[in-house]
Amino acid sequence: MIETVLGSLASGLPKLLGHFVAAAAIYAAGMAAYLRLTPYHELALVRAGNVAAAITLAGAIVGLAIPIAMTLATSVNVADILVWGAASSVLQAAAFGVASLALRDLPAAVERGDVASACIVAATQLAVGIVNAGAMAG
User: Which candidate, 87, 93, 104, 83, places its Cα nearest to that of 59?
Assistant: First the structure.
């Protein structure tokens, strides 16, 4: 019994670690790109107590994690995770762009702490992440 469990662990653990590292890497790259693309400095605003910036950043964090989690469930190898994770990152950046177009003064709104605008951005990011994950599931 224990030999079976240890054998399963020995054969599955390297795959788990490889997939986790790939997903974490593409997630970190996607978040870094998002933070560079936003016209305001979300982390600095969050550190200063700006709730609107925290809401938009939270939307990005979760909105990107959802489709990357789906890549783990549907991919057959590390390359799959990296390709579909990168595609997810691009779609999340596009979601921010669409929200920015809809709310023309979005950067200023977030910087002044406009929670209503931040909620729309976060909801858009989450919606795109959920739809993106569903599309990956086929």
Answer: 93
Q: Which of 72, 64, 63 is nearest to 20 (CA)?
A: 72
40 alpha carbon, distance to own chain's centre: 18
Higher pLDDT, 13 or 66: 66
CA angle 100, 101, 103 (to 5 degrees): 65
Q: State the pLDDT at residue 117.
A: 92
DSSP state of 38: S
Write the pLDDT tens digit of every residue in 90-107: 888 888 788 778 878 888
Q: Average pLDDT for residues 33-51, to the nearest whole number?
A: 93
Rounded-to-integer distance, Cα 51 and Cα 45, Å: 8
CA quadruple 134, 82, 100, 119: dihedral sign: positive
Residue ranges covered by each domain of the chain: 15-137
